[in-house]
Amino acid sequence: MSAAPEVRVPRSEPILQRGLEVLASTQDAEGSWYGDYGGPQFLIPIYVAGLHVMGRVPESAQREGLVAYLRRHQNADGGWGLDVESPSQVFTSVLNYVALRLMGVAEDNTGLRRARQWFLPRGGALASGAWGKIILALLGLYEYRGLQPVPPELWLLPESLPFHPSRLWCHCRMVYLPMSWLYGRKARAPESPLLASIRREIFDGDYAQVDWTAARERVSPTDVYTPRTVWLKAANQLMLGYERVAGKQLRERALDFALEQIRAEDEATHYICIGPINKVLNMVVWHFVNPEGPEVRAHLERLPDYFYEAADGIKMNGYNSSELWDTAFAVQAVVATGASEATRPMLAEAARFIEANQVLEDTREPARFYRHPSKGGWPFSTREHGWPISDCTAEGLKACLALAPLGLNRVSEARLQDAVGFILSMQNKDGGWATYELQRGPQVLEVLNPSDVFSTIMVDISYVECTSACVQALAAWRKHIQRPDARVDEAIARGAAFIRKIQREDGSWVGSWGVCFTYGTWFGVNGLLAAGASPEDPALRRATAFLRSYQRSDGSWSEVVESCRQGRWVEGKEGHAVNTAWALLTLAAAGEQASDSARRGAQWLRGRQQADGRWPPEPIAGIFNRTCAIHYDAYLRIFPVWALAVCDKR
Predict the structure, then answer these.
(1) Quick check: 82 and 627 in contact, CB under 8 A?
(2) Domain named Squalene cyclase N-terminal: which ranges (predicted)?
């Protein structure tokens, strides 16, 4: 084992002490940091729609909390955004309207009148993005012939084809898998007076007179982030042509194949599923296959995993939790403070959680069900979820190795080696790392993105965050074992080359999972340093110069989600503690912790802390698919503490 690092006493001990006390007081009984992972505004309505199709409604207490949340986050113009901080879209506005009606809110409610006044002039349900129309069709509020096709027969194509569904990013394919089954069956909720009333309310005109052929191509400008390409339009025409001649026998074979894949996903994840959308859609599929059967009951039992009650109501999280991810970061932040004795109980509990949630086996028949081997990886949330991720595994491994000198690591050497093996198995040909799997399809498949509202959903490409985390973990492992390992050395070198290749001319890296350049640049710099770059490396000097150029006059940094959407720095209205912490961690890693820029940033961060040890709420710092903001509850408790710990070392 490697020698224990030198323990340094932080100068701002009272500030760090209060921050550590907040972390300790918010640690879950399981040893993790469990919290709010909400933000997206399309999750609750899809859940409510799914229940309605099954003849169910949320229980009374949950219904009240869900309604309160949707009302709280209705925009001033009457619509709802893709997330709670975004401008209104027809997609989310119509779906949230429908959800509120299904939960008993009256048509003449003031909020619903305002919603109709916003979305009807913009085309109403006919102008919704693609996912909205599919959910409306499932409810019988839209006609299937007005959808772009999602035939299940695509799964029967030769797997060697570059556009076979198995080559898609796992989140994409796991959403379109049950969608294809439901589309293939033209599954539809039973008609009811309530649905008939809602149908009249969400269309601007006579439903019977709708031109469903034209409706396929109609999308409100509010919903278009990824325009439909000529290639997508051509593919849609081919699939529509197939739909006209699709044979019953082949359709049934395709539906059976899709159902087999759905069952494998459910069983591998203990009916949690990779995310809330395919969770609900898989459940609805089983309702049509076997109403009230064991699969439906198993899904219903795991629905609570996705809900979180907060001050603004009950929300549906974007995952069953972010527990492993947050816990691994929290461990590294706490260890960085040097307060190992005072924080020993907290670290011991975190170590217990990390050990308990490493994935110990591969899924059943991984090749048959298009799964990368899982053994040794760590997931974003919990072991039961069952989908390990490259950077989650890397951060889990880094946390274990940070705990080892303190005698607190609980994961055996053999299992740590399994984690290393998992990371090595995930490196792409370009030297980088993607999220859940190796990149399976060509990046050009993005031209077939049918979602309208999301970007980079088709292929699991290499990211600076995943690549840096894996390079850092492998470098930490190499130091830990203190012996040569050619595979590890080669992987680190290739990873570093990828990080250098994707650095922008201005010195930054684009963050894909956090907002945005402060996040991506933190990873880019630390990845190169872990690979052996000197602080004087030109790439690092450009990176720190970039950060300094965006430091605010008060010493802070601030970015908003629009940075991700627009691919350029978009300044927030005031300084953000999380962005400032990422910038400070980057400067300190590059040897600039004593610089005037770092000093002013740390001073701002200290002054921002409240008397209770917390940093005040601020805009969302998480993002996915370049467009949708998502909240990481623990970030404001973890990263400011970590940044001050490394900046105040003397």
Answers:
(1) yes
(2) 19-306
pLDDT computed for residue 13 by the predictor = 77
Contact 138, 285 (CB under 8 A): no
- In order of 323, 528, 530, the CA distances from 329 in angstroms are 10, 19, 17
Q: Tell me the C-alpha distance between 186 and 138, whole Å.
A: 8
Cα dihedral across residues 513, 519, 521, 524: positive or negative: negative
Averaged pLDDT of the chain: 96
Q: For residue 473, which phi and psi values (nearest 5 degrees)?
A: -65, -45
Residues 439, 394: contact at Cβ < 8 Å?
no
Question: Which are the catalytic amino acids?
Answer: 391
Q: Tens digits of per-residue pLDDT, 534-553?
A: 999 999 999 999 999 999 99
Distances in Å between the alpha carbon of 640 and those of 15, 325, 403, 585, 631?
Answer: 10, 17, 20, 9, 16
Q: Which two tokens stand for residue 516?
A: 């945005």
Residue pair 390/466 in contact (Cβ under 8 Å)? The answer is: yes
Yes or no: say if 61 and 114 are a contact pair by the CB < 8 Å rule.
no
Residue 561: which of 578, 586, 546 has the closest Cα?
578
- Decide if 606 contacts 598 (C-beta within 8 A): no
Domains and CATH numbers, the chain: 13-37+319-647 (1.50.10.20), 40-140+188-225 (1.50.10.20), 147-186+227-305 (1.50.10.20)
- The pLDDT confidence band at residue 649, using thresholds 50, 70 and 90, is low
Residue 4 has pLDDT above 50, yes or no: no
CA 576 to chain centroid, in Å, comes to: 21
CA dist 15 → 444, 505, 577, 605 (Å): 49, 37, 14, 10
Scan for tokens 């959680």, then name that residue.
353
**CB environment 508-526: b (16+ within 10 A), e (fewer):** bbbbbbbbbbbbbbbbbbb
Residue 234 CB neighbour total at 10 angstroms: 11
CB count in 10 Å sphere of residue 189: 18
- State residue 81 phi and psi, 5-degree precision: -90, 175
Whole-number Å distance between alpha carbons of 588 and 572 = 23
Residue 511's nearest CA partner among 524, 500, 494 is 524
